[in-house]
Amino acid sequence: MKATTQPRHALKKPMAAASVLLSVALLSACGNGAAAPAATSEAKANAEVQALLPEELKKGGTVEIAVDSAYPPMDFMEGDKMVGIEPEIWTAAGELMGVTIKPTTVAFDAIVPALQSQRYQASFAGFWITEERTKAVDMVSFFQSGSQYLVRGDDNKGAIDSFADLCGRSVALQSGSYEMTYAEDAGKECENAGKPTVQIQGYKTQDQATLAVTSGRADATGMGAEVAGYVAQQSKGKLKTAGQVFHTVEGGIALPKGSKLSAAFQAAFNKLIADGKYNEIFAKWGLDSAKIAESKAHTS
Q1: pLDDT, tens only, 129-180
Q2: For the whole model, what pTM was predicted?
Q3: Max CA-CA distance within the chain?
Q4: Distance between CA 87 and CA 103 in Å, rounded?
Q5: Would residue 187 be called left, alpha or beta, if left means φ above 0 and alpha means ψ between -120 and 50 degrees?
Q6: What is the pLDDT of residue 2?
Q7: What distance in Å separates the CA atoms of residue 127 and residue 120, rounded to the nearest whole number?
């Protein structure tokens, strides 16, 4: 789930055939996102969706997006190819718009500033939609999420069903995520209650934070619920979910304030929901629980 310095991945935000322990070298080698799917088929374009595009894109063009390529199953690298729910969603949405979607991997905590400076036209990075975040960027929903924590398979410290359960634990979290912000707040509350504080470790990517747990450097890691169950499953017993999903929230894409693309993306998402493609994508990645019935724009 990612914060104002921008959860998601409190939705950042499961990685088919890929190991939970993706190497940092592999991730950095794919920084330009060139191998990710790009929508180029004008044959699949939808006139109603295209009508909502800015004039310069109504006859085609390129939409540059910032992505987080290390947040399975939302988006992650499999060899030299970016795969996951988000690449499939942006490809399908781009086809309906009749535009090419060009993804570039950007550090999660740098994405919102990059949108504010108009460096990118949108971002797919498992963002949670919060009131605080929508003051900085416009957002359009296409999934739902919440907080969930993972611990090692042999952990016996008890469930983490709320941020209050973090007292006295060491937690590895992705920098810039709301999980980091919430853990910091929880630490203060623990201290005020006379309990041990939360020991926080920050990492650039979620897979690095996850590795800190499997290697014994941290007790737990928190992430969007749309990711946690998948990562635990892929770990083959090395990790397990530590408790129930809590702090539920909508997730989606981020765009610069006042973007003329918000309406087009919303229409594309709702078209995908209506025609069944959306259900097909989420079912493929085992994330039926993260589906929504309608995409909404948050542009206040």
Answers
A1: 999 999 999 999 999 998 899 999 999 999 999 999 999 999 999 998 889 9
A2: 0.77
A3: 63
A4: 9
A5: alpha
A6: 44
A7: 15
The crossing angle, in degrees rounded to 10, of helices 262-275 and 277-284 is 80
Contacts of residue 85, defined as CB under 8 A and 6 or more positions apart, other chains included, come to: 14, 73, 74, 75, 143, 281, 282, 285, 287
Residue 75 has which token pair? Answer: 């988006």
> Between β-strands 70-71 and 75-78, what pairing exists: parallel, antiparallel or unpaired?
antiparallel
Quick one: CA dihedral 94, 95, 99, 102, positive or negative? positive
Question: Looking at residue 38, what is its pLDDT?
Answer: 55
- For residue range 54-102, list pLDDT tens digits in order: 999 999 999 999 998 988 899 999 999 999 999 999 999 999 999 999 9
Number of Cβ within 10 Å of residue 47's Cβ equals 8
- Name the one residue in this structure whose structure tokens are 């330009």: 32
Using CA atoms, how far apart are residues 70 and 48, in angstroms rounded to an integer?
Answer: 33
Residues 38-59 pLDDT 10s: 544 455 899 999 999 999 999 9
* C-alpha–C-alpha distance, residues 59 and 152, integer Å: 51
CA angle 287, 276, 10 (to 5 degrees): 30
b/e string for 147-178 if b means 16 or more Cβ within 10 A? Answer: bbbbbbeebeeeebeebebbbebbbbbbbbbb
User: Which of 116, 89, 113 lies closest to 103, judged by CA?
Assistant: 89
Q: Which residue would you say has higher pLDDT here, 201 or 207? A: 201
- Residue count (the chain): 300
**C-beta separation of 199 from 171 below 8 A:** yes
What's the helix, strand, coil split of the chain in %, to 5?
35, 25, 40
Q: What angle do CA 100, 140, 119 make, to 5 degrees?
A: 50
